[in-house]
Task: structure prediction
Amino acid sequence: MASAEAAHHYHFDITMTCSGCSGAVERVLKKTDGLSSYTVNLEAQTADVYTDSVPFDTVLEKIKKTGKTVKAAEADGKGVGV
Result:
């Protein structure tokens, strides 16, 4: 569910081992105002977020609050330290 119209694309590699893990990430993203769209892929252990206005750090912190480990991340195609 990519959104080519969104100004920003954030990609996260997240340690997720079960549907409960991916569900937790989906729930925090669903509650985040300002996201154009997002996808969470349990098999690939990734999340892709599209937004015009939400800062990268805000999305990163929300994902980290689920207790899941963010192994790597990109903001608009550039690697970002996590």
Q: What stands out?
A: The chain is about 25% helix and 35% strand. Residues 19-30 form the longest helix (12 residues).
